[in-house]
Write a structure and sequence with these properties.
- It is a single chain.
- The chain has about 200 residues and is mostly beta strands.
- The chain is about 15% helix and about 40% strand.
- The strands form 3 sheets. Strands 1, 4, 5, 7, 10 and 12 form a 6-stranded antiparallel β-sheet that branches. A 4-stranded antiparallel β-sheet has the order 6-11-8-9, with no helix packed on it. A two-stranded antiparallel sheet has the order 2-3.
- β2 and β3 form a beta hairpin.
- It is elongated and about 95 Å long.
Length: about 200
């Protein structure tokens, strides 16, 4: 939130033939002009620049229909999602489904939120969608979960800035459901990332 502007500098008038105007000193021109500089710097930093940033960076959206690839975890293959044209669903008779897909966002983008739409009829199943970043060489920083959602239809807002760096990292979505009732439907229709 942009704080309200409250002036810090107040000019005290000089009086003709009584006040002696001088450059130095506590009430000199130099000191007053430095106080004006501080006032303008504070105004720029706390109000004007924040407004320009907010106006200059519109929120954009990357809306994805999940096209998930099965993966192995510790050498064991995980149960895959059943892929439809415009969604994925947990296969009937299974209690879990797992998959991932590549995500490409503009370099330098600031991720703001993650929204997942779908249905989860299972009262025991936990659906989790994660945006993950990993070092391009698979060394160093390993994986970072940038944002994660277990709620359908409600965007998860990020507390801090998550900046995309395509020079050093690659990004993907991981979509998992665990512990679901075997014959209860779990479907994912869309994953939407908001960024600036």
């Amino acid at each position: 939130m942009i704080e309200l502007y409250r002036p810090q500098f107040s000019h005290k008038d000089w009086i003709d033939n009584r006040d002696r105007v001088q450059a130095g000193g506590e009430d000199g021109l130099n000191q007053r002009f430095h106080m004006l500089e501080e006032e303008f710097a504070g105004l720029a930093q706390n109000q004007i620049n924040k407004i320009i940033d907010a106006l200059g960076a519109p929120t954009r959206f990357l809306t994805l229909t999940p096209a998930l690839v099965r993966y192995t975890d510790a050498g064991a293959e995980r149960a895959a999602w059943s892929q439809a044209i415009d969604m994925v669903e947990k296969p009937d008779g299974k209690t879990e489904a797992h998959g991932f897909m590549n995500v490409v966002l503009p370099d330098g983008a600031l991720v703001r939120s993650l929204l997942v739409t779908g249905t989860n009829v299972s009262s025991t199943g936990t659906l989790k969608v994660s945006l993950i970043g990993r070092d391009i060489k698979n060394s160093g920083g390993g994986t970072n979960v940038l944002v994660e959602s277990t709620n359908l239809g409600t965007p998860v807002q990020l507390d801090g800035d998550v900046k995309i760096s395509n020079e050093s990292r690659r990004y993907y979505l991981k979509v998992d459901v665990d512990g679901a009732e075997a014959n209860k439907a779990v479907k994912v229709f869309c994953v939407r990332l908001a960024y600036q």
